[in-house]
Amino acid sequence: MGGVGEVPSGPARLDVVRPARSPLGGGAAGWMRALIACGLAVALCLVGVDLARHPVLLHDAAAPLYLALLAVIAPAYVAASLLAARTAPGLGAVAGGVVTVLWVIELWAGNLGGREPLVLLAYRASIAGVLLATFVGGLLGALRHGGLGAGVAVGAWSGMLSGLVVCVIAAGVGALSLAAATADPQTLAELRRSHLSDLETYSAGEWLAAGVNHLWIGLGLGSLLGLLGGAIGLSVRRGPRAA
Questions:
Q1: What is the dihedral of CA 98, 101, 103, 108, to 10 degrees?
Q2: How many other C-beta atoms are found inside a 10 Å radius of the C-beta of residue 8?
Q3: Contact call for residues 90 and 141 (beta carbons, < 8 A)
Q4: Gap between the Cα atoms of 193 and 198, Å rounded
């Protein structure tokens, strides 16, 4: 039996407190997930403000469809950002920046640029550029990291980033009451054929529909093209070894 002042024998045991891991993860992937989460929050807030400023849009026949799309897209973005491979967020950010610029050009050419031949060329070239840039991003992802998941991740990252930026711009036009200023002759002609008499509300609805559509186009098309590019990149990477 030990005495009152006896020092216990053996090495002292230290309890190491490990820091809690962030659900977003660390490194570039964590920053990308945080960026996607913030962008999604801003986009949804602007959509809400837009609908609050133009409540008649909720009575449109297509309103339930777009609300259902938002209800599906929002959790899909969260899930995709959490499931995307951690090996390619940097390349995904670069591809997302390129695709975002191309989509902004498409928005300008399709809504503000007029009907001149050069504007139409810019419109078509920007769409073709989006497809090519996303495909090349997936190809480079697979070549660099050696996995099909990297190609899909690059396409998903770039598609989500560009889709969110376009949605923020489109919803912001209506939320800030700038829609009427963006109306072109084609929009005015469509307004006369619609059931609406308010140019601001009609233009806001057109911009909002475009923004929501770009969300699912970004994630869906980006992932698909990333998959195709990744598959080709993976086969090219394995080719010399198999020979």
A1: -160
A2: 6
A3: no
A4: 12
In the chain, which ranges are E strands?
none
- Mind listing the pLDDT tens digit for each residue in 205-228? 888 999 999 999 999 999 999 999
Contacts of 88 (CB under 8 A, 6+ apart): 141, 144, 145, 150, 151, 153, 154, 157
**Residue ranges of domains in the chain:** 42-238
pLDDT digits (tens, 9 = 90+) for 91-104: 999 999 999 999 99
Look at residue 184 in the predicted model and tell me its pLDDT. Answer: 63
What CA–CA distance (Å, rounded) separates 81 from 35?
10
What pTM, to 2 d.p., does this model score?
A: 0.81
145 and 237 Cβ atoms separated by less than 8 Å: no
Query: What is the dihedral angle through the alpha carbons of 120, 125, 131, 133, rounded to the nearest 10 degrees?
Result: -140
Considering the chain, what is the average pLDDT of its residues? 83
The answer to whether 124 touches 206, Cβ cutoff 8 Å, is: no
